[in-house]
Amino acid sequence: MGDRTHAHTGAAGxxxxxxxxxxxxNVVLVGHxxxxxxxLVEALAQTAGAVNRAGRVxxxxxxxxxxxxxxxQQRSVQLSLVPVEWDGCRxxxxxxxxxxxxxxxxxxxxxxxxxxxxxxSAAQEADAVAGTTRAVWExxxxxxxxxxxxxxxLDTARTSFDGMTRICGEIFGGDDPDAVLPLYLPVHGPEGAxxxxxxxxxxxxxxxxxxxxxSGERRENPPPEDRRAALTEARGRLIEGIIxxxxxxxxxxxxxxxxxxxxxxxxxxxxxxxxxGTFHPVLAAAPAAAGARQGIGTVExxxxxxxxxxxxxxxxxxxxxxLHGAPPPxxxxxxxxxxxxxxxKTASDPYVGRVSLVRVFSGTLRSDETVHVSGHGLADHGRExxxxxxxxxxxxxxxxxxxxxxxxxxxxxxxxxxxAKLGGAETGxxxxxxxxxxxxxxxxxxxxxxxxxxxxHSKADEDKLSQGLSRLVAEDPTMRLEQNQDTHQVVxxxxxxxHQDVALDRLRSRYGVQVDAVPHKVPLxxxxxxxxxxxxxxxxxxxxxxxxxxCEIDVEPLPAGSGIEFVDKVVGGAVxxxxxxxxxxxxxxxxxxxxxxxxxxxxxxxxxRDGKSHSVDSSDAAFQTxxxxxxxxxxxxxxxxxxxxxxxxxxxxxxxxxGPVMSDLSGRRGRVIGTEQSGPGRTLVRAEVxxxxxxxxxxxxxxxxxxxxxxxxxxxxxxxxxxxxxxRLGEQRENDPNNA
Length: 740
Hints:
Blueprint: E1 24-31, H1 37-47, H2 68-73, E2 80-86, E3 89-95, H3 103-112, E4 115-121, H4 131-142, E5 147-152, H5 161-172, E6 180-182, E7 184-188, E8 199-204, E9 209-212, E10 219-221, H6 228-244, H7 251-256, H8 263-276, E11 280-284, H9 298-308, E12 320-322, E13 340-349, E14 353-362, E15 364-366, E16 370-375, E17 388-393, E18 397-401, E19 404-408, E20 410-412, E21 416-420, E22 430-432, E23 438-440, E24 450-456, H10 459-475, E25 480-483, E26 490-494, H11 497-509, E27 515-518, E28 525-528, E29 532-540, E30 547-557, E31 564-568, H12 580-593, E32 604-612, H13 620-636, E33 640-654, H14 658-667, E34 671-677, E35 682-690, H15 697-704, E36 710-720, H16 723-735
Parallel strand pairs: 1-3, 1-4, 4-5, 5-11, 6-11, 31-32
Antiparallel strand pairs: 2-3, 7-8, 8-9, 9-10, 12-23, 13-14, 13-22, 14-21, 15-20, 16-17, 16-22, 18-19, 18-21, 24-26, 24-27, 25-26, 28-33, 29-30, 30-32, 33-35, 33-36, 34-35
Helix pairs in contact: 1-9, 12-13
């Protein structure tokens, strides 16, 4: 954070290593899509000497975006790890996707990190701090995670560092905007013909020195006289902000009294405040120009990470429990302590197979050792997967660098590594010593709420579909696979349309499965609107034993949730006792198939009151058929009512969007049950909405709330569908060639 001259220790093509937790920094980059996170990682890697030349996102040549899908879509879709070395520290840069559909990858990055860099684009001033980014900031604040802000794209026209800093102070600072202040001011060169003044360097507010990058190298100069006034004003505000966070309560009085505060003291207080998560510096950065060795601001940023961000020793470990009632151990980030590690991401390599990205919190992970694997999946809005445990041998350890895997002998507490072929391990699972098995508390995963119904494109694809989908879901815990027993559809639940596109692309390109997306069906039900009667007559004679069964039934509707009730009121043996269960079986089978539109029949009482049999030709099969025919005839004599599922929906949005959200829910035939405050500036809206109306609500709510809202849903009940809607669905079904 000062004006030191650096001799970086990285070397292109060599794996950065760590021999003690104090030399590790785990940093996750967070920001809106297009904010420049991946470009910034490239610039940092080049400055640290990890790469000789920074790649471009547009060319698909960056270290982070190495997946073919990312090349095709020109955006990050998965978490990537880029380790670099700076001043004797191993810095694990965790690059996350900015698009809301891939927030599961962001959650994994937050779990693996000890500090966060929030990247905002000066070129996206109106939308630079999207709703998703704000929500992540609040989550980090709740757990005290240290955060800094990096303003990018200052080398484009009509951008303002001061404007972005003011916006960040208002949004991220909350009640204390002076906790979000710049450490450096950008320096611009002369204006060009287009009126744009290129970014050429930075002025350090504490050191009062200019770091000039215009020559392609970082050079230190005194500030020009015409910048003194702006520098003095910004420096004074920064010093006051740092002193306000100082543990020395007399420092502010001395400063206000006119005493000169030593720069070294300010730097020390700044570093402590950043590490505590109470002060959030703002820095500027721009990628390296053609031929330049360093990007503007990259040295300053690496300084901040190594000196201001905490080591793994300074951050609390996730909650850990023993298994089967065993008391939880007291763990610390000690390489010699008991092993406690966690799988934060699972990927599939076409050559290696399954690869697990693991954060080691305690102990040391070594290849060829046997570990205990235990887990219950990620916390999915209160729904947890069943607990599972096994033992597995640790395969080859490696340090990922884009698509490269550089071999490692061991991974110490505080560090990250990839493990090949860790059998039975899923994302969120705990790795521990078999003699002292442990279980870490899960982190929250977003609930996938956008359905994608798929069918195999051909017979060959049908044989591979199940395995491909299973592997896809194992890699991405924010996808959920459903085999719907009512609609007989295979449904892949995703977070959004981009998430769906990636799923289909991966199925095709990685697993060789071609699928077709088909309309998602909502499981409807049928019931009788009024009492009715029916007679089932199944009489056939075709040589040998014939078939003879006649039964008469009454059907009456029951309250919702009653299911199918069967009553036997036959007297005089009109239907022999041994065939009464056969009638019931036929009735229930027909009810499952439906009696009007092919949806299961529910909430009726079927009473068998009479019938006829034949001493030779009556049989179980004959009376099953007669029971089904009787139910169909009864249905033909009355109105059949369609029942639709209703979901209980809980929508959490900023207060500004409560009105539009409630209006939108009402337009979806929803009934708003109530609202309640849920933290500062946020409201929880509870409503009951037919599931037919919220199939795309995950997409629509994001648009309505500018990415700031989220919701969950739970099945409440089935209730009667409006007649006009039921009639329209019936017409659509009749015109559908697939129902012919």
